[in-house]
User: Fold these one by one.
Assistant:
Number 1:
Amino acid sequence: MPRPFKKRCCRNLTEEKIFKPVMIPLSDLEVSDLRADEFEALRICDLEGKNQIQAAQIMEISRGTIQRLLNSGRKKIINALLENQAIRIRNQ
């Protein structure tokens, strides 16, 4: 049985956001889901330029978890770009 999901300090997304390639209907695309915690880790580290320790303190989780979130988020985004998939950012 998996561990219970630990609450993470993330910005609250009021609605899910979808980014897709132009000129292709969403119904024809595969969708890659990016969780809010992955998006928040990417925003803090890549956009704001914080290191993983600072990001972990902001999100109130371990540095190892930040590293895992960054790896999985980046992998999903790169894969979606290479495979012409839509990217959906959603709350947990």
Note: The domain at 28-90 is CATH 1.10.10 (Arc Repressor Mutant, subunit A).
Number 2:
Amino acid sequence: MMDISVEQNDALTELINIGVGHAASTLNCLINHTIRLTVPTVEFLSIDKIRHNPPIGDGDGISSVSMSFHGDFDGNASLMFPLVSARTLVAVLTGEEPDSAELDDLRSGTLAEVGNILLNGVMGSLSNMLASTLDYSVPIYQEVPVQDLLGHQEAEAVLIARANFYIDELCIEGNILLFFELGSFQSLIYSINKELMA
């Protein structure tokens, strides 16, 4: 884990959970299911550690929604699911059978929208609570081996937030990864310290 204090980590966890809570409220307005989202753990790791020990197994690849952010912090945000979990989530959200041929056609659009709402909720929470300015790119959906996604990242630090999607009787696990470019990690910590001292 990178060098941040317990208080800083707790503040980040709270900010991420606020953003995830807003995203869950938005999703609940769009679908016929009640979604509860929680983030039980948040940690910072180096990009090298992430590449050597990916947060998601690389068996059949992953489904990911990614977008870049620029402003007071620069980097990329990604929501990642194992392909099996992604398929289950889309089946529940769309009402299609898990083995339906239509599910493949729906997967990219459905997960892109879920990722867009969730990542915007998280980044919006960070920027609002830390009085920071951020601009976002249009989210991109990909199904690739996890190392392909991690290989091109130029990050000083990576925040990993484990996200649990509770829908009906299901719990689907995903990962939110925020890749902070050089200098942005320290800017984030500086902003958190200002908030803690306020």
Note: The CA atoms of residues 36 and 166 lie 5 Å apart.
